[in-house]
Amino acid sequence: MKVLSYQVPQSSLKQTVILENDEFENTFIKKPLKSYPKTLIIIPAYNEEKNIGAVLEMIQQKVPGIPILVINDGSSDTTESVARSHGANVISLPYNSGYGVALQTGFIFAARKNFAIVIQMDSDGQHDPKSVKNLIEEVQKDGVDVVIGSRFLESGSYKSSFARRAGIFIFAKIASIICGQKVTDPTSGFQALKGRAIHFAASDHYPPDYPDADFIILMHRHGLKVKEIPVTMHASPDKESMHHGHKTIYYIFKMFLSIFVTVLRNVSKR
Amino acid sequence: MPPKIQIISILICIFLVAYVFELVRRKHLSEEYSMGWLVTGTSMLALSVSEGLLKWVSELVGATLFTSTLFFFGLLFLMVICLHFSIRISALTNQVRKLTQSIGILDLEKKTLERQIRQSNWQIDSSNLEQL
Question: Domain for residue A1, yes or no?
Answer without folding.
Answer: no
